[in-house]
Amino acid sequence: MSELEGKQLALAKLIDGQVIDDSERVAVHVKGQVNGFPATLQAFSTGWPFGCMYAIETNPGAQVEVSLENQAKITILPRMGRGIWSFFFHAFLFESKGRGVRDKKLESKLIFSYDNAEPALRFCRYPGVPDILLEMEKYSKIKELVIKTDQGLYLSQGVSSHLLDTDVCQATFKWMGELGQVIHDAFGE
Predict the structure, then answer these.
(1) What string of pLDDT tens digits covers the 189 residues of the chain?
(2) Separation between Cα atoms, residue 114 and residue 130, nearest integer Å
(3) How far apart are CA 63 and CA 42, in angstroms?
(4) CB under 8 Å to 17, separation ≥6 — which residues?
């Protein structure tokens, strides 16, 4: 067994899943379940500059209907400039200020954009969500987190699958599963 196969099997065990042979499309493809939701981990290549992509489907097969007023796409990015440096990053247009979520702690570490304010703000203020987002930003080294209230969530991580720590991967899936449960509970009808 190669090192890559061993790593994929270890990652598959984390989500009670299996390794999918999709070598024509991606180098790493693992499918399983997290909190009862279908979960996927993929990587186009095992080395730099390619990171890992996580996905949790909260509405597989469109079993739950989400009303149009509850639909939102929320994109969350980590901030490059923090503290006093944030002024310079905004002034010289290196970084977007983002849209407000009425939480200074979140806004100081993350950039938010969304297409529908009411459900996006409801999601960001849901009990436990701010803490999960801050933990994910700190430990998972997210590059982008996209939440679609009618479909699920997608996370791009800047760590290659070759260097991916299984504990970080397990924690990331745990947090994503919790966010998936929030999406299912708060936006499913």
Answers:
(1) 678 788 888 888 989 999 888 878 888 899 999 999 999 999 888 777 788 999 999 887 665 555 667 688 999 988 875 555 555 544 554 545 667 788 888 888 888 999 999 999 999 999 999 999 999 998 988 899 999 988 899 999 988 887 888 899 999 999 999 999 999 888 875
(2) 16
(3) 25
(4) 30, 31, 32, 33, 39
State the residue for tokens 């801050």: 134
Closest by CA position to 182, among listed 136, 138, 119:
119
Query: Distances in Å between the alpha carbon of 104 and those of 20, 36, 89, 100, 110?
Result: 42, 33, 17, 9, 10
How many Cβ atoms sit within 10 Å of the Cβ of residue 5?
Answer: 10
Dist. CA 119–CA 129, nearest whole Å:
13
| pTM of the complete model | 0.85
Q: What's the CA gap between 48 and 50, in Å, rounded?
A: 5
Number of H helices, E strands in the chain: 6, 8
Strand order of the β-sheet with 18-19 is: 18-19, 28-34, 37-43, 52-57, 152-157, 142-148, 73-78, 110-114
* Overall residue count recorded for the chain in this entry: 189
